[in-house]
Amino acid sequence: TLIIDEGFGSQDALGRQNLLQAIIAIKKDFAKILVITHLDELKDAFPNRIEVEKTERGSTVTVI
Question: Cβ distance 37 to 52 under 8 Å?
Answer without folding.
Answer: no
